[in-house]
Write a structure and sequence with these properties.
CATH topology: Aminopeptidase
Strand order of the largest sheet: 1-2-3-4-5-6-8-7
Structural class: alpha+beta
CATH class: Alpha Beta
CATH superfamily: Gcn5-related N-acetyltransferase (GNAT)
Helix content: 25-40%
Largest sheet: 8 strands, mixed
Length: 188
C-alpha cells in the first residue's frame, strides 16, 4: 500500500523522516510512553532510527500503517492502524509527546485517521479496536471521547518489552454514532 498523507487545519499525518529521529528519541524518553506503549525500554537513538526506516516497509505490507503527527514542522506524536487484517478490522494506537498534551491534538488527528480508516476510498474498515494497558486512563479518556465503546478487560493479554499486562479493549464500528458512552473503568 502506498503511504497516505492526512491533514487537518493545523496538523499533518505523514511518514517519519530522518530529521525526526531526535524528536522521536526525546519524546520516547517519557515514562508514560515507555510504560503504556510497546516501544523498547530503555529507548535509544538507534530505536528511533530503526522506526524511521521500518515505517515505509510496514506501509508496503499494509498490516501496520503509522504516521507521525506534525503541527507545522514540529513532531508531536504518532498514530496508526495496526494488525490491519484485510477483512475489515484494524487496531488504532497513538501517543502524544509530553509538551503537546492537552491541546486537543490527539482527538483532532485521531478523528481524521478514523474517518480515513472507515472510508471506502481509505481502508474501508468495519471495526476499529483500541487496546491499552489497564490503567492508561489518558488513552482511555481519548478513546471514549472518540466514540469507542468499552468492551472489557483482557487478562495478561498485552505483551510488550516489559512483560505481560492486563489490557482494556474498546471498539468502534463504522455504523456507530461516535458519541461518548459510559466506561465502567473511567466512570466508577
Amino acid at each position: 500500500m502506498d503511504p497516505v498523507i492526512l491533514r487537518t487545519p493545523r496538523l499533518a499525518m505523514t511518514l517519519p523522516a530522518a530529521g525526526d529521529v531526535d524528536a522521536l528519541f526525546e519524546a520516547c524518553q517519557d515514562a508514560d510512553i515507555q510504560r503504556f506503549t510497546p516501544i523498547p525500554s530503555p529507548y535509544r537513538r538507534s530505536d528511533a532510527e530503526a522506526f524511521v526506516e521500518r515505517v515505509p516497509r510496514d506501509w508496503e505490507s499494509g498490516v501496520h500503517l503509522t504516521w507521525v503527527i506534525r503541527e507545522g514542522e514540529r513532531l508531536i506524536g504518532t498514530i496508526g492502524f495496526y494488525r490491519v487484517d484485510g477483512k475489515g478490522s484494524g487496531e488504532i494506537g497513538y501517543w502524544i509527546a509530553p509538551d503537546a498534551r492537552g491541546g486537543g491534538y490527539l482527538r483532532e488527528a485521531a478523528q481524521t485517521v478514523i474517518d480515513w480508516g472507515f472510508a471506502p476510498d481509505g481502508l474501508g474498515l468495519v471495526r476499529i479496536e483500541w487496546r491499552a494497558v489497564a490503567g492508561n486512563v489518558a488513552s482511555a479518556r481519548a478513546a471514549r471521547a472518540l466514540g469507542f465503546r468499552y468492551e472489557g478487560l483482557l487478562r495478561q493479554a498485552l505483551v510488550g518489552p516489559r512483560g505481560r499486562d492486563d489490557g482494556w479493549i474498546a471498539g468502534l464500528l463504522a455504523t456507530d454514532d461516535r458519541m461518548p458512552h459510559p466506561w465502567p473503568v473511567l466512570d466508577a
